[in-house]
Amino acid sequence: MDRATVDIYDRSAVTYAERRRADEPERARTFAAAVPAGELRVDLGCGPGLYLPYLGGPVVAADAAPAMVAEAQRRHTGVAGVACDLEALPFRRGSVAGIWARKCLQHVTPEQVPLALAGLHRALRVCGVLDLTVFAGDGDRWTDGDDDFPGRYFALWRPDRLRDLIVGAGFEVEELAVAGDGERAPTDGQDPVQSPAPIVARARRARTLPDTVGAGMRLLVCGLNPSLYAADAGVGFARPGNRFWPAARAAGLVTRDRDADYALCHHGIGMTDLVKRATVAAAELSTAEYRAGLARVERLVRWLRPAAVCFVGLAGWRAAVDRGARAGRQDRDLAGATVYVMPSTSGLNARTSLDELTAHLRAAALASDG
Question: How far is residue 229's CA from residue 207's CA, in Å, rounded to a whole number?
Fold first, then answer.
């Protein structure tokens, strides 16, 4: 989250509470009703607690600005609070049933949002509710002297890109719309003429894996789809007998076993899947799913611009692009990125040895160097 913006909120908690109000209490009540009674929900980016009375309970007030958490707890006695980085939530995996994220992720740079959403996915239990609001538009901006809290950073979002990121983060989107059908609308006490229209989204955490992607990727690894075992374990290629991680370590791509976040942040290796739907076996997937998934991955590549993409398993590329494709570097690229296709690392693919898989991953890494 932008630190200068956090500092502004930290200095202005009391004043902010006096000048703002909850303009969407009914939406908050709808969120509260969607979370089973008695199960934990989080007010993420709680500010001074404007929405806490409407979210049901038990609820945790979480914000990157400690003064905002303190103000929320002062105004709502007995509410649990935690000051935390919105990109590194301190909640146990699967411990939360609902996250109300109203206008907090808009203070995170767009390229960091996929990992932030992956963190929300991990914190939520399967079928947990995410209610998210950001501002519509292109690019980003900082508020100026005409704003009552100048110097704040805002990322603006196109609905289509936001939808792709929510799906990529392992959520099933139930609603995503620009408030007022594209017209500008009042937003928590701000001037409706000066404020961009909000995008509101509601989604449920699917039994799948989130993308671990971001800017500056050397190589984007794209699996066919998560197995149910991997989805429940929380990491791709997790089943005993799958040779992806041993091959990746032997090839020098990664240094930690089964740690996708570390692979991205320290080695520039991102991870996604052609199809987000988890299954017992990839044979359950259809050609239509592969083609739709490839379109999403292509949009992701066009945005984040990894140097190369390695498709693990030939079935997806063959179904979506080239039925006759063979393992190796492909003749066509994907949104400007070099494409490498390799055999499946599943233990069921016994005809391909660990040494051969290692050689393929090493070649994919070399392809990313041009």
Answer: 10
> E strands along the chain, which residues?
41-44, 59-63, 80-83, 96-102, 124-136, 140-142, 153-157, 171-178, 198-205, 219-223, 269-273, 308-312, 328-329, 338-342
User: Taking Cα atoms as reference points, which of 367, 220, 210 lies closest to residue 301?
Assistant: 220
Tokens 């070399």 sit on residue: 366
pTM of the model: 0.94
Nearest in space to 330 (alpha carbons), one of 252, 222, 212, 213: 222
Instruction: In whole angstroms, give the CA distance from residue 334 to residue 362.
Output: 20
- 3-class SS of residue 148: coil
CA proximity to 227, closest of 211, 240, 238: 238
What are the pLDDT digits (tens) for 188-213? 544 433 578 999 999 999 999 999 99
Burial of 259 (0-12, 13-18, 19+ CB in 10 A): middle
N-term to C-term CA, the chain: 33
- Largest interatomic CA distance in the chain: 68
Contact predicate 131/202, CB 8 Å: yes
